[in-house]
Write a structure and sequence with these properties.
Elements: E1 4-8, H1 13-24, E2 29-33
Parallel strand pairs: 1-2
The protein binds flavin-adenine dinucleotide.
Length: about 45
Amino acid sequence: MGKNLVIIGGGAAGPSTAAEAKRNDPSLNITILERGKFVSYAS
Ligand SMILES: Cc1cc2nc3c(=O)[nH]c(=O)nc-3n(C[C@H](O)[C@H](O)[C@H](O)COP(=O)(O)OP(=O)(O)OC[C@H]3O[C@@H](n4cnc5c(N)ncnc54)[C@H](O)[C@@H]3O)c2cc1C
């Protein structure tokens, strides 16, 4: 079982951080907590 990473904030920085962390360690279990209704997206 991989390590857990909790990221506070689902704006631009949060998902970018998650993607980079996953690239560095694919076994990570990542949870992003966003207080708003929407998370960041890009086309
Ligand atoms: C009016 C305006 C226009 C802009 N236009 C552009 C543009 O055209 N192009 C561009 O590249 N940049 C633009 N920017 C800049 C861009 O919005 C920011 O650089 C970028 O959003 C920063 O991302 P961030 O993830 O650091 O912060 P944020 O986008 O602020 O994301 C932080 C997230 O964390 C969440 N959060 C905070 N506290 C908690 C908590 N306790 N628990 C859970 N979630 C929490 C918030 O809800 C938020 O969704 C603009 C900014 C503004 C204000």
